[in-house]
Amino acid sequence: MPELPDLVIIQERLIPELIDRKIESIEVVDPIVVRDLTGGALETAFKGAVFQKIERHGPFLNFAFEKMNIVIHPMLSGRFSLDPKYKRKDLCIRFNTDGPVLNYMDDTRMGKVYFLKPEELGQIPKYKEQGVDLLSEEFTESLFLKLMDKSRKQTRVFLMDQTKLSALGNAYADEVLFAAKIHPKTPCNQLAPEDKSLLYKSIKEVLFTSIDYIRKKNAPLEVKVRDHVKVRNRKNEPCPVCGTTIRRANVLGYDSFFCPNCQQSKGQQFIDWGNV
Predict the structure, then answer these.
(1) What is the dihedral of CA 48, 222, 159, 270, to 10 degrees?
(2) What pLDDT, on the 0 to 100 scale, is given for residue 46?
(3) Contact 251/231 with Cβ under 8 angstroms?
(4) What was the pLDDT predicted at 268?
(5) Architecture of domain 132-258
(6) What range(s) does the FPG-type domain occupy (predicted)?
(7) What pLDDT shows up at residue 272?
(8) How far apart (Å, rounded) are the C-alpha atoms in residues 15 and 54?
(9) In whole angstroms, what is the distance from residue 30 CA to residue 105 CA?
């Protein structure tokens, strides 16, 4: 899915293209991705609506217009494009007669696009339940330690709990744990104070360096940049630090990639990762 660093760049690149533009028309190509809360009046409700801003809220992008909002949750494979000739699209929003065209496409159809009023944001599943924004000033080390205090969850599971931390997906959860040298299955209550402190610093470092990398890469808007990741989806490749073969494990139903040498497990595991 487009994760936090991706959404930051999408937000940065779309705002100057769309600012003060009026919606000319909305074409719903695939209704399965759309949640229309306007009561069937989508076209009339948004016709002529002026774009004001994009607010990033965890894994959601909130496109704010006059009195209306379009909230997009890209989920696993949602993508955006400003190419008016882009062939594969599920939703197409045209701005002005000669203005830009915003396309949204989703190969797995897992993402959702909500058309609604600002006071209806609470009707979007998980929107109001988001925890602290990991890129905000409110995300301090003291708050992080407080949120983790007494948790018995596996560390990777805790990192991906969006009601606590908003929001890490699979790719950057793996990258953060690698940077912090923590095995993904390690319970939070088995981490030493210095481990927790390094984990907090790793979250900030990985996210901000990834944002900077993706920004400089300047790839097409619809391209998901992942060539900078060190362990995610790199099973059987050598660890970039020690050369040990990167492994994959199942953590609460999700694939997790890690180095068994750099991220040694604490406590007894069903699998001896150093010998597989």
Answers:
(1) 140
(2) 96
(3) no
(4) 53
(5) Orthogonal Bundle (1.10)
(6) 230-264
(7) 52
(8) 7
(9) 9
pTM score of the predicted model: 0.93
CA dihedral sign of residues 125, 128, 131, 136: positive
Q: Specify the pLDDT at position 173.
A: 98
- 246 vs 186, 231, 242, 257, CA distance in Å? 17, 7, 10, 7
Looking at CATH, the fold of the domain delimited by 4-123 is given as: N-terminal domain of MutM-like DNA repair proteins (3.20.190)
Q: Where do the structural domains in the chain lie, given as residue ranges? A: 4-123, 132-258
Structure tokens at 261: 């040498």
- Which run of H or of E encompasses 144? helix 141-148
Of 25, 30, 22, 55, give the one whose Cα is nearest residue 42.
Answer: 25
Q: Note the pLDDT of residue 87.
A: 72
Concatenate the DSSP letters of all residues of 178-230 into one string: HHHT--TT-BGGGS-HHHHHHHHHHHHHHHHHHHHHHHHH---TT----TT-S
Amino acid at 87: K
Those residues of the chain that have pLDDT short of 70 are 1, 267-276
CA dihedral sign of residues 213, 215, 216, 221: positive
Q: What beta strand segments (E) does the chain contain?
A: 23-28, 34-36, 51-57, 60-65, 69-73, 78-81, 91-95, 101-106, 112-116, 132-133, 165-166, 247-251, 254-258
Cβ within 8 Å of residue 148, ≥6 positions away: 158, 188, 191, 196
